[in-house]
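pasting for the record
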Amino acid sequence: MSNELPARMEADARRAQIVSVASAHFAERGVAAASMSAIAREAGVTRALVYHYFAGKEALLGAVLEAEAHRLLVATQPAAHLSPAANVDRALDAYLDFFASSTGELRAFYAGHSPVEDAEALVEGNHERHLPWLIEASGRPDEPALRLALSGWLALVQTIAAGSVGHAALPRGEAKALCVRALEGLLGAPLSTASMAGPSAGGLSTGTPSEATPQASPAASTPSSQQGQA
């Protein structure tokens, strides 16, 4: 038994290395142009070992998307020492960074329309993990109608991200401000700029308009995905 755990850890590390290298190759060359042999060579393993872990390129892409979903979720989680407004700003920056640096199937994944099996479930899973702290921002009970509205906002962020890159790109500041205005309009109040670590900490607590500071205004500050899965 004592020898099984190190062996398992070594296997997990090899698999993670292959996924990491494949992610870079898919982002740079696209899935169709990426070579399994080149991925194996850069990962320092044999091509046969890549196929030992992954039945084919589509299976490897699925593993890459799963890893990307986790990275995005971690990057967009709120931090207790930041205010709700700052957390939204941070999350939006992280999601837009992920989206802007992606290409091909990875960008399709961040945009929420990847053809890869289970990709939609990964996106929805990230959204489900973001909903609790968005719900706390509303100050309302966790009800189906609110969840539906906030899920719609997360989908809007995907659409805005798609418009923030490419030929007719929106400037980053405008894209974030548009997302924030939509969220604050849905919640009916500006996002709080008080630290989440304070007495009323928890999620994305909102303040009433009278409690809001000038920094809470999207025009002055564009609060922050995943990243969710944005």
